[in-house]
Amino acid sequence: MARTRSFSIYLLKPNVQPATALEPGHNLDPETGATQLPPGSLVFILDSHPREPWWKAFFGIPRQLSQVGKGAIVFVPASNRWFALCFGHVSHNLDPEAYEHDFGLKITLNSVDPNALRSTDLFEPGTSRRRRVQIPTAADLTLFDVDADSTILKSLTGKVKPSREHLFRHVTGATNLRISAKLDADGLTQLCTDLLAVYNSLEYRDVFPEIQSVTPVSDPVVIGQLNRELVESIKNRADDVSISLPAIVDFNESLLFTFTGAGQGSLYDGLEIDNFYDYLEERKVDSDSLDFEELKKFRLVMVNEDQAERLPFRLTRSLIYDTKLGGDKAVYHLTDGNWYRFEDDYVAKLKAYLDPLFVTDASLIAYNHASEGDYNEAAALAIADTVCLDKTNISPTGQTQIEPCDIYSLDGGQALLRHVKISTRSSQLSHLFSQGTTSIELLKLEPAASAKLTALVSAKAGPFGPALCAPIAASNYAVRYCIITTKPAAGQSDNLPLFSRMNLMRAAKYLKLMGIDRSVCFVPDGSPPKPKKKPTRKKEAGAQA
Fold first, then answer.
1. Could you tell me which of 297, 261, 242 has the C-alpha nearest to residue 97?
2. Helix orientation angle between 426-445 and 447-461, rounded to the nearest 10 degrees
3. How far apart are CA 485 and CA 432, in angstroms?
4. Residue 295 belongs to domain spanning
5. Domain count of the fold of the chain
6. pLDDT in tens, 204-225
7. DSSP reduced 3-state for 259
8. Is residue 540 part of a domain?
9. What are phi and psi of 122, to 5 degrees?
């Protein structure tokens, strides 16, 4: 009788063959001696050379110790498609462009009991934040804090509904599908055939209507245009390009980052797109000559203390970017190496809600300062009865420090809390919007926070303190997000990355719920271009291109 086995399964894209599905320079060997492969299948083996763990020499351990990596990828043909079954840590040897990135998730959405979910992996492009939410008992999606307007569901785990139990009992779906099934090797072809039928089903649209519906871009002509837009933005170091890890990783083992593709790179503590630009300069790569095929050669690599590569990711999988094409009103978003189209009506919905929030703040001076902090001080001095509260704290004792705002003044009898941020990058803007909601929440709910704000304003305002503090006692606040940018103010919400617009709408709705007037303004950036930063180098990476 067949035993229950665990499988990790990928679906190759149409017309992709095993010969082209593996990354160039992969470390797998073809195996021709297997006797129980499904008909037509191919297997590639990982059999790495033994190497000593770093801690053996560190502690002077004399015993002979070695660690090796073992694994395999089995390519199974079924229903005129190829499937890749991965065993061990070998999936990074698959070319990310060779397989369907929604395969596992779609099958799970079509197969899982919607009231018996256990775990989700969520991605917020606006903050590049990835999080895993697990619940010990079966639950529906509402308990997993999935915000359809700002969150992308990347992985789902749950119990299978009765109609699919003949295939598997429990399922986890992301890019790949992870299941346990009771079958022998000769049953894999039928399993893959059945999985393809489930993948092509549209049942999930009725079962999970709250999940944001976005359309994957499949037209190679459009993808080519989008890839060229991405490369041009990288050449210009545009603010709308950012970088993020394309997976949830274990930082206990991998602490540093580097890049490969043009030789040995420096190691970095943090992950910023500027690090990649520094790498290009360090390796004397002419960015003006870059095209998309060249860009695909670069890797983002996580490195452990022993300078051993732990997780290499193709750079194009790690970039986050959104753009428009010509007169098309739709927005195209790049994440995990795949392009998605957000349709006109959704973009129009965002615009209709957000554009009325944009105002002209004639009181604010233009930015031409050494830092954001210097600007806040100067802007407060330029406005009568205004104080700078940058880097102050209103949190009650024992709580994480929270800044009330950057610039405080009166506006029509309200306490106007201005929050200021340079840049229209998603990560910066998400922090800005969060500052506005977090400080208001604290001021509304914690009397100690209001008392601290009163004390801060009184101390800085002198004889004008009582008048400035009057709205605080009445909890009469207004929030204004002030974005320093070179982009024209007439662009309104179109100036912001797509997911920043989503985060702004969420913040604005929350502030409205709290009874807070809210607005957004652009501050013209008249500063000269900043000199390029030196990379924060730790030591030379052992990884080679």
1. 297
2. 100
3. 14
4. 220-342
5. 3
6. 888 887 665 566 786 778 888 9
7. strand
8. no
9. -120, 145
